[in-house]
Design brief:
It comes from Shewanella jiangmenensis. The protein is α/β, with parallel strands linked by helices and 226 residues long. 26% of the residues lie in helices and 24% in strands. The chain has one domain: Vaccinia Virus protein VP39 (Rossmann fold). It is built from 5 helices and 10 strands; from the N terminus they run βββααβαββαββαββ.
């Protein structure tokens, strides 16, 4: 039995195994995750993703962030401060955001390992196609919860496991750098456990809002010092 890397529960079981890896599923938060013994070493991940990842994902990143900003602006949110976590936006799109009066910080462990960006509070956080790379997603979730201002938005894009019965045929799992596979129920769990409002989780896109004031719940599995 493996401890779930997201909710930290031991309510897990072997889910699937192939010649390269074994995968487990958590009955508490519904996360499917690769066995930690099969995770790629950091230098191998750096070689694969050290230049920003696939060109397709880099092209799609502005199409994910810019519409979010437009929607928040339409709701009356002006001069927003956001964090783009896990990838680096191209300079043209970044300049466009800044020209509209917003501020966007970026953090990527290879392309932009700026520790200062993880010391601020943000109106929104974007996380595009990186959740699947989180070997310890509990750690990132606690980070996002800490960095978001009350009432702030968390926007994520990741391939969601919609049909567990077809996991064996799902090509997304074959990338050895992909180790965490959430489903809609996973984000429903996160929202419920943290007091977030799950606005939607469809078509591989997730939008959540942190509550305002004292409505925030503390995860009983969390070390208060983290």
């Amino acid at each position: 039995m493996r401890r779930c890397p997201l909710c930290l529960k031991l309510e897990t079981r072997l889910f699937f195994q192939d010649r390269k890896r074994s995968f487990h599923v958590c009955s508490h938060c519904a996360l499917v995750f690769a066995d930690g013994a099969s995770h790629l070493p950091s230098n191998a991940i750096r070689q694969r993703y050290g230049r920003g990842g696939s060109l397709e994902n880099q092209r799609q990143l502005p199409q994910f962030i810019l519409p979010l900003l437009q929607e928040l602006q339409a709701q009356g949110h002006n001069q927003l401060k956001g964090l783009n976590y896990g990838r680096v936006l191209d300079q043209s799109s970044l300049a466009h955001i800044q020209a509209t009066g917003h501020e966007l910080w970026q953090y990527d462990p290879f392309m932009a390992p700026d520790g200062e960006s993880l010391q601020h509070s943000y109106d929104f956080i974007c996380c595009f196609r990186v959740f699947e790379h989180f070997g310890a997603p509990h750690r990132e979730w606690q980070l996002f919860t800490r960095l978001l201002k009350p009432g702030g938005y968390l926007a994520m894009s990741t391939r969601m496991l919609s049909d567990p019965q077809r996991f064996n045929k799902w090509h997304h799992k074959n990338n050895l750098a992909h180790v965490s596979f959430p489903g809609k129920a996973t984000f429903e769990y996160l929202a419920s456990a943290s007091g977030f409002r799950l606005i939607f989780a469809e078509n591989d896109c997730i939008l959540m809002q942190k509550p305002s004031g004292s409505a925030i719940k503390r995860d009983p599995n969390t070390d208060p010092a983290v």
